[in-house]
Amino acid sequence: MNLSYEKLIRYEMYPVYWCPGCGIGVVFKSILISFDKLGWDPNEIAFISGIGCTSRMPGYLKANTIHTTHGRALTFATGIKLVKPDKKVVVVSGDGDALAIGGNHFLHACRRNIDIKLIIVNNGVYGMTGGQVSPTTPEGFFTETTPYGNIDPEFDTVKIAEAAGATYVARESVTRPFLLSKIIEKSLSHKGFAVVEVISNCHINLGRKNKMRNQLKMLKWIDERIVPLSKASSMTPEELKGKLVTGEFVNKQKPEYVEQYYTQIIGKVKELQAEFDL
Questions:
Q1: What share of the chain is helix, strand, coil (3-state, %, to 5)?
Q2: What are phi and psi of 196, to 5 degrees?
Q3: What whole-number distance in Å separates Cα of residue 18 and Cα of residue 89?
Q4: CA-based Rg of the chain, rounded to a whole angstrom?
Q5: Half-sphere exposure of 20 (CA within 13 A, CB side)
Q6: Bridge-partner residues for 47, per DSSP?
Q7: Per-residue model confidence as pLDDT tens for the chain (278 residues)
């Protein structure tokens, strides 16, 4: 059966790079479904990644794509949006790429409210490079670089994005693909900087060191850890300890950066050029 989003896939690049059972495939399908539902023309899309397992995604999408340097996907995306404001700019990134090496760029993209959509696939580890600890590795977990257990507290992506000024912030899990597709579609329709964190699995480089050697065990662990926002509101801090709340946390309007840049900065430059006959 031919599915309507299949026209967006570069089948000539298959088989995919990802490990069997990796959640990134679920995220990719959710993005394809969202593009198709919104009727986005591939020529209108600029799809960007940094480095890591998630960064392979642009290779399989039939659109304008670019695979950039580690942690710098948002800087490339910002440049593209400023030069080509008509493009629909979407960035995919892993937790290490977006929140560690690219953490500074993440904060400033949030505060500027530039019209870019960022989808962070959070599998709690640097998967592609062999399983080093990342800012979202759970406390107590064993990794290649924390052989005695991780003592660093976890980053809360949602709270960071909200505090930095992002105008759309949501979190969902690969264990709930229907809800994930809906939340990604909604984020793509938002005007301004949108952040969607997707909780995913890396049973190969995180799970196998923490008694979850296959994807089913790790997905079950993720599912037991997530709590919908509606339920979390009636839970105590003690009950929420170690849990990940999912849902839509921020959805608000604010002046968009590129529009301000063209009306306020470029507009003034043109006025000066006309005044001095430049």
A1: 45, 20, 35
A2: -120, 120
A3: 24
A4: 19
A5: 3
A6: 65, 90
A7: 568 999 999 999 999 999 999 999 999 999 999 999 999 999 999 999 999 999 999 999 999 999 999 999 999 999 999 999 999 999 999 999 999 999 999 999 999 999 999 999 999 999 999 999 999 999 999 999 999 999 999 999 999 999 999 999 999 999 999 999 999 999 999 999 999 999 999 999 999 999 999 999 999 999 999 999 999 999 999 999 989 999 999 999 999 999 999 999 988 888 889 888 77
What 62-65 contacts at long range (C-beta under 8 Å, 24+ apart), as own/partner pairs, is: 62/7, 62/8, 62/9, 62/10, 63/8
Q: How far apart are CA 30 and CA 36, in angstroms?
A: 10
Does the pTM of the predicted model rise above 0.85? Answer: yes
What is the DSSP-derived secondary structure letter of residue 212?
-
Contacts of 215 (CB under 8 A, 6+ apart): 20, 21, 22, 201, 203, 207
What one-letter code names the amino acid at 108?
H
- Asked if residues 199 and 227 have their Cβ atoms less than 8 Å apart, the reply is no
Triad 130, 131, 137: Cα angle to 5°: 165
Contacts of 242 (CB under 8 A, 6+ apart): 138, 225
Structural tokens at position 78: 């910002």
For 153: left if phi > 0, alpha if psi spans -120 to 50, otherwise beta; the answer is: beta
15 preceded by a cis bond (ω within 30 of 0): yes
